[in-house]
């Protein structure tokens, strides 16, 4: 599988990365066995980049991912986790506590812990230390500030310098920010020396907010962008009433647009999810697409769709129908293997 390096760092990422929120029981429970099999299937398909966070299932995703990777040679894969949310014991939670399930965040797990926002320098260090303990590994390769929407100034003044120091000391190889919006990450690109932005849901076939500011800024500074949420929380896999968009039910205008996209891609013999997964690679700053999966079958389908030929005429018609801006860059050739650059 094709790889590239993040920004000015030496950290490689595979073109397809496995997003591990689903391994923390996002939306639906996943067994330990299914989680392990999902990671194994990704590995067998050539995926060598894995992304997790303490937020995902209150640490469950990190524990499962670490267990699945523990016997793999540590220098053969890239692991990303996040800082900004500390997990502390919950006085009300406990196994089988029912109402304390983490459903408010979409994760069906007992709330033995609760999240506390902390973008202090000490919070960064404590978060990474706890993540390593849950993962059972000796290091992470990428550390990302996780959703500092309401904590921007502290993240800039305290958390970012702590990450920069860890990178300088070689504790982590690359640093960045992961968000569901593009404005604040663009500010971080302008004001800091981050290597990568993980942008979720804002540069997809459905919406291209990332083209305003963030992606041009990354290109100008030689920084990388990893695109998550290419299916907009599942809407672009199977648009229908009740489908999920931005972690909630899709509003009707959004659903209507997704259905138009589906009708057009299928006229060209291309599943909507294939076009959605390939679309971000049209921009030169996009190093990897992060795809979530909860089963080996979903992993194998993701790889199959990534390799599916997509005719240029499909992108042309999307533009002609006003579903893509005329200036939106699109992939025009099949991705091919290459050595890390």
Q: Can you summarize this structure?
A:
With 341 residues, the protein is of the alpha/beta class.
Characterise this structure.
The structure is a single chain. Helix content is 34%, strand content 18%. With 341 residues, the protein is of the alpha/beta class. Strands 3-4-5-8-9-10-11-14 form an eight-stranded parallel barrel, surrounded by five helices. The chain has a two-stranded antiparallel ribbon with strand order 1-2. It has a two-stranded antiparallel ribbon with strand order 6-7. Helix 4 (152-168) links the parallel strand 8 and strand 9. The longest helix has 17 residues, at 152-168.
Topology, element by element:
Blueprint: E1 3-5, E2 12-14, E3 16-19, H1 32-44, E4 49-51, H2 60-69, E5 78-83, E6 85-89, E7 113-117, H3 121-135, E8 142-146, H4 152-168, E9 174-179, H5 183-191, E10 196-200, H6 214-221, E11 224-228, E12 244-245, E13 248-249, H7 252-267, H8 272-278, E14 286-292, H9 296-307, H10 312-320
Parallel strand pairs: 3-4, 3-14, 4-5, 5-8, 8-9, 9-10, 10-11, 11-14
Antiparallel strand pairs: 1-2, 6-7, 12-13
């Amino acid at each position: 599988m094709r790889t590239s390096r993040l920004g000015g760092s030496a950290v490689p990422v595979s073109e397809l990365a496995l997003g591990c929120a689903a391994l923390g029981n996002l939306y639906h429970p996943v067994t330990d066995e299914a989680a392990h099999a999902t990671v194994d299937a990704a590995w067998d398909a050539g995926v060598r980049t894995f992304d997790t966070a303490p937020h995902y299932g209150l640490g469950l995703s990190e524990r499962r991912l670490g267990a699945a990777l523990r016997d793999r040679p540590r220098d053969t894969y890239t692991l990303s986790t996040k800082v900004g949310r500390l997990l502390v014991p919950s006085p009300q939670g406990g196994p089988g506590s029912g109402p304390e399930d983490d459903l408010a965040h979409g994760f069906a797990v007992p709330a033995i812990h609760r999240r506390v926002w902390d973008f202090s320098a000490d919070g960064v260090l404590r978060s990474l230390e706890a993540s390593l303990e849950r993962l059972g590994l000796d290091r992470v390769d990428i550390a990302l500030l996780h959703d500092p929407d309401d904590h921007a100034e502290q993240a800039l003044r305290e958390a970012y310098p702590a990450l920069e120091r860890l990178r300088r000391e070689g504790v982590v190889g690359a640093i960045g920010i992961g968000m569901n919006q593009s404005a604040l990450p663009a500010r971080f690109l302008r004001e800091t020396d981050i290597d990568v932005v993980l942008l979720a849901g804002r540069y997809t076939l459905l919406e291209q907010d990332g083209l305003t500011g963030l992606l041009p800024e990354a290109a100008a500074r030689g920084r990388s962008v990893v695109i998550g949420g290419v299916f907009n929380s599942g809407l672009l896999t199977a648009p229908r009433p009740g489908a999920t968009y931005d972690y909630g039910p899709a509003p009707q205008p959004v659903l209507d647009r997704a259905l138009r996209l589906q009708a057009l891609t299928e006229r060209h013999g291309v599943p909507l999810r294939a076009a959605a997964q390939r679309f971000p690679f049209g921009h030169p700053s996009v190093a990897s697409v992060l795809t979530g999966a909860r089963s080996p079958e979903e992993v194998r389908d993701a790889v199959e769709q990534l390799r599916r030929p997509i005719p240029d005429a499909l992108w042309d018609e999307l533009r002609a129908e006003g579903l893509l801006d005329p200036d939106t860059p699109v992939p025009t050739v099949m991705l091919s293997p290459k050595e890390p650059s």
